[in-house]
Amino acid sequence: MRRVVVTGMGGVTALGNEWESIRAHFAAGHTGIKRMPDWECYTGINTRLAAPVENFSVEDIYPRKKMRTMGRVAQMAVFASERALADAGLTGSPLVQSGRMGAAYGSSYGTPDAVLGFYELKMNGESKHLNATNYIRMMGHTTVVNIGLFFGITGRIIPTSSACTSGSQAIGYAYEAIKWNKADMMIAGGAEELDITDAATFDTLYATSTKNDAPKTTPRPYDRDRDGLVIGEGAATLVLEEYEHAVARGAKIHAELVGFGSNSDGNHVTAPQAETMQIALKLALEDAQLTPDAIGFVSGHGTATEGGDIAESIATHAVFGSRIPIHSLKGYFGHTLGACGSTEAWLSIEMMRDKWFCPTANLENVDTRCAKLDYIMGTPRSLDVDYIMSNNFAFGGINTSLIFKRI
Question: Radius of gyration (Cα) for the chain, nearest Å?
Answer without folding.
Answer: 20
